[in-house]
Records
---
Amino acid sequence: MGHGVLGDIRVADFSRVLAGPYATMLLADFGADVIKIEAPAGDDTRHWAPPVDATGRATYFGGVNRNKRSVVLDLADAAGLAEARRLATSADVVIENFRPGVMARFGLDHEAVRAVNPGVVYCSITGFGTGEGTALPGYDLLVQAVGGLMSITGPRDGEASKVGVALVDVLAGQNAVAGILLALRERDRTGEGQLVEVSLLQSLLSALTNQASSTLATGTPPRRMGNQHPSIAPYAVFRAADRDLVIAVGNDKQFRALAEVLGAPELADDARFRGNAARVAHRDELRAAIEQALAAASEAHWVDALTRAGVPAGIVNDVAEAIAFAESLGLEPVAEIEEADAPARPGLGTLAALAPRPAQAHRSIANPIGLSASPADYRTAPPALGEHGGADWLPRARPLARPQDSSPKGPR
């Protein structure tokens, strides 16, 4: 049994690329024994390079695969498939993100695994569910497009834009974690596993929150507004003398404080800007007045002054600045794992050096969930392809869940 709140949980991870691996990494950070099953060529993201880290590892792969073991199993080979089935029948959790029907062809679908392993929590991540959307490829960009996110992202009069990261995959991965933990909790009560289904499209629609609710209520879909908010003003990116900053005013008190800091207190009493509804109706005039005042000083001056006055404001950081900002707040956003004499990484072609590398730290973004008594633990760097293979890599059997209690259950 391992350490951590999930130290007694074994995960058979058949997923690849982002949504599934992100989910299993979050579980592994809290002690789950995640066994990453890879095809002989490895997870596709092993080859998504450059950029690479100091070991020659693709940073895309490295960002979502720490704390895991890697085994290579060719499901098209009888011996490899037998090992995969053995693993699935010894696991507490099985997770996969193949197109619907692929796992069934190998006898590794939920029904087949559950027949042998009734306590299994089986998580299936798809792009568009298992009905009419089965044939659609679940690529994040495609889901952002057909799921409505791109219609509300980008300049008002410009091209629809994707978000700058595969956000839908990340959302689906987080939903998978939540679903798995809910199913494990239910298994604690009943001894029975169940199927957890997460789709990228449903994850996105849920995440649209206020934009989706307004559409349902009014029948009118929202449109792109750049960095402006459909219901609040001023709530956008503004230009100071040297660079951009964000001002996010949520109520009249904050707007009056903004006007005072800008040296234009009369704005708070202007009929066009008295109350949020009026400010939304006259957002263009308001923007012009604010930027005229902001042009007098640097963004650093304004962010400091506005923050001291209780007005939400911040610099538009790049990613490096964002990490440094989190560090300045004491959030410890970076997890470091020492890699002693890291071997060359198979499958990276000319990007991988032939000799072992000196000790160094693998750095990745820390788990976002903070637990006071059983925090995340960063134990091992992302594994080399097949690093944990061999005859004794997995016990032949182990108990999975407590027997179901047949006694009546009262309120808990």
Note: The radius of gyration is 25 Å.
---
Amino acid sequence: MLIEPRPATDPEVDTLVAAQQRELRAADGGLDGQATVVHDGIRYLVVVDGGRVVACGGLQWIDADTGEVKRMYVRPAYRGRGLARQLLSALEDLAFHRGHSVLCLETGTYLPAAIGLYTSCGYQPIPVYGEYVGNPYSVCFAKRLPVAA
């Protein structure tokens, strides 16, 4: 398996993000409707297995200190292999090298596996922020990254 960067315009990234959005709508009972996916400055990393992109996740700049994890998704056939954990670690490394000291993220209350992943990787609950304020299904987390020596 290989983790590599891909542009937001990459067709394989687009396919995975579309699958992620369909799965989210199904999981939340369609409560969020047909949200338009905007890639605003998201830097994507993908997991490649045998030449096929099987997982993706993105990092979006919020401010000089803070990045946001976006669009984490692993194809169903590849779940349970630790790929999301490896991808999240790679996103944390990317954020660190971009100078971020904090990573935050949002997920849904209806995604217990995602919540379990984030908390087991050291993310702590924080108040909902930004576009997620007012969404009763949003839960947000943050993690302090190591400081460069």
Note: The chain has a mean pLDDT of 91.
---
Amino acid sequence: MSNVKIAEFTAPGIKNNAAKDAISVLDDRMVALIDLQLTLKHIHWNVVGPNFIGVHEMLDPQVEAVREMTDTIAERIATLGGVPVGTPKSIVERRRWDDYSVGKGLVTDHLTALDKVYNGVNEDHRKAIDTLSELDPVSEDMVTGQLAQLEQFQWFVRAHIESASGELKS
């Protein structure tokens, strides 16, 4: 399901074609963030082994923050005249990546996989920032702020799977 702009107006000062393009970029980020928050909760429920409780408790604040980011993006889509669609089927249809594959697993297995998830989300947020810089500085600023927080969350994850010499487990 593609995001269809149905309003006849957008935020004052932004051209309709720029708003439509910004909505498309924001929709992609919204899908990624919904997927990320569900993945984080899945890991929270299924992580086991040494350091279980530390990881289990580290993830809930990330879930809440990502949920807040999702809401902010959805509301920006609506502000620009778009329709934020967050139904499960529509999210899966618009997702460009494979589903998270680790079920019940050890801390290191989950965090190594989660690091890869953050790689994708954060790289795509950077690309979105570049695109939005030409379309809508408000959306660009919003996504930039989110990226700072997402990169910090990835740092938290990497601290668990990094060696003393700075190498990540693969």
Note: Residues 16-161 form a domain with the Ferritin fold (CATH 1.20.1260.10).
---
Amino acid sequence: MQVIDLSHPMTPEMPVFPGDPSPEIRIVASLENEGYVERLLTLSSHTGTHVDAPAHISPHGKTLDALPPEAFCGQGEVVDCRPLGSKPISLGFLKQSGCMSRPVDFILLYTGWDAFWGGEKYFSGFPVLTPEAAEWLIQAPIKGVGVDALSMDPIDSENLPVHNILLGQSVLIIENLANLGKLPARDFFFSCLPLPIEQGDGSPVRAAAIIGL
């Protein structure tokens, strides 16, 4: 069995969505003074590698604490979107790639944008699903769609069409994934378990893939 970490490390300097607060990580107890180490974390619910609950967009969508643990794990499939560059991820491209040719719980879009983590390029130019492609994905009984980029919609989008399509049908969104290039296209177990935040609209996760389970 092999476990692949799919999360970015959390640091005060990490990229955040424009307008969101940067995380603060402060030592409040030390071995020298208190005999133990403890840190105070101040961060947005959508910091770093994180999951969007339906309540992030929909007024009637479920919050994190209303979803069972099994909603955040299952069989995964990687779609290699790198050949597109910055072009949209269309329905035709998904079908040509063989996406969902057999039952799967999570579709992970491998754009390669995690290579730009920490730089200016990370904030723009990443490919996103077309609304038509998103509508096609929700026809299957999937649990979530993930991407190794900043957002499932363009950074300057005002109406967030892909977020609304997916979350409107209770399909989770996982953003800022990493290391998708280390995964096979299929036959792995994916997990993105969040903190059980009361009325939570989202949460950082330690996403991981298990191969050979």
Note: Helices lie at 91-97, 131-137, 161-168.
